[in-house]
Write a structure and sequence with these properties.
single chain, alpha/beta, Rossmann fold, 34% helix, globular
């Protein structure tokens, strides 16, 4: 009996490996046979973890030391808590309309309505820019809300499906490249205060468009960013108010 119990973890591990292998096989079949419809229309969330979240969360992890003091996040404080931890003294959550129980206030980044000035040490703006009508105004208002030395951390998808889940409340309006992000954020913050990155490769971009999940791919798929910077899944921006 004791020998059997000792073998159970190995059996469980084998089952998990087999499941991952089957998922990777499905991914290879989907990408290799020219499928014309997606596996998922929910960014892969119904299968596991959305592929872009790997890049988003790595970016926030790299800049976790700057998620501190008074921090603003959109919709919910999940990343503030996860990456800021005890460094955060005050967490605030912005939502554009009433009815979000996790929001601490309602405001509008585009118009500046209810957005305090010189208030935040860090603003986390993940997967929000593509929804906005006037992106430059939103960036200017975000800069105005930062204290001197404060940091804006932005992620925005590039090679990603159109977001149909947000309709009819919001519209999926924009995508921008790393060059576009450098130009836009540089105009507001000053080019010397902006660092832009892009992350992904043809495999992860294709898998994301098909609606596969991160778990359908090998971990090594995420360790390589296309050397020609031609297939970004996610564009990241760190902008500091000097």
């Amino acid at each position: 009996m004791r020998d059997l119990l000792r073998r159970i973890p190995s059996v469980r591990s084998l089952v998990r490996r087999q499941r991952r292998a089957r998922g990777r096989l499905r991914a290879r079949l989907v990408l290799g046979l020219g499928r014309r419809t997606p596996v998922s229309r929910a960014f892969g969330w119904d299968r596991g973890t959305a592929i872009d979240r790997i890049y988003i969360e790595r970016f926030l992890e790299r800049h976790s030391a700057e998620i501190r003091g008074t921090v603003l996040e959109i919709e919910d404080p999940a990343y503030t808590r996860r990456f800021g931890g005890d460094r955060v003294t005050r967490s605030e959550v912005l939502h554009a309309v009433e009815g979000n129980p996790q929001a601490t206030f309602v405001g509008n980044l585009e118009t500046g309505e209810n957005i305090p000035a010189d208030h935040y040490d860090c603003i986390i703006l993940t997967e929000t820019m593509y929804l906005l009508g006037d992106m430059r105004a939103a960036i200017e208002n975000a800069r105005g809300a930062l204290r001197p030395g404060g940091v804006l951390l932005v992620t925005s998808g590039f090679l990603m499906p159109i977001d149909i889940e947000i309709r009819p409340v919001w519209e999926d309006r924009w995508r921008f490249t790393a060059a576009g992000a450098e130009w836009l954020f540089g105009r507001v913050f000053g080019a010397e205060n902006v660092t832009v990155g892009q992350h992904g490769n043809v495999l992860t971009a294709s898998a994301f468009l098909y609606g596969l999940a991160a778990e359908d791919l090998k971990k090594s798929a995420f360790e390589y960013d296309d050397e020609e910077l031609q297939f970004p899944v996610t564009v990241t921006v760190r902008a500091q108010k000097r």
